[in-house]
Amino acid sequence: MEVEERLMERVPKEYRIDAHHWLILHGRYVCVARTPKCWQCAVIRYCDYQPKTPPPKS
Ligand code: SF4
């Protein structure tokens, strides 16, 4: 199954118009390529990526 088809299954119809903007922003600010900010992620419970990035030590 292609990514588009899988997204269509998961994204409720009423959110589909704006979903691509949210996905782009999510990738730009939270799920960034080298070190995703998993500790800030609103969709962490749906994500299979491992290992999750822990929060930075302050
Ligand atoms: S939990 Fe998953 S979707 Fe969220 S930032 Fe981490 S890798 Fe990305």
Average pLDDT works out at: 94
Major β-sheet profile: none
Q: Kindly state the number of beta strands.
A: 0
**How many helices in DSSP terms?**
2
Ions, cofactors and other ligands present here are: iron/sulfur cluster
Specify Rg, calculated over alpha carbons: 13 Å
Overview of the structural elements:
With 58 residues, this protein is mainly alpha-helical. It has one domain (3-46). It contains two helices and no strands. The protein has helices spanning 3-10, 16-29. The radius of gyration is 13 Å and the shape is elongated. The mean pLDDT is 94. The structure holds iron/sulfur cluster (SF4).
How is this fold's topology laid out?
Layout: H1 3-10, H2 16-29
Bound molecules: iron/sulfur cluster (SF4).
Protein traits:
binds iron/sulfur cluster; 58 residues; elongated; 38% helix; mainly alpha
Quick description:
The protein is an all-alpha fold and 58 residues long.
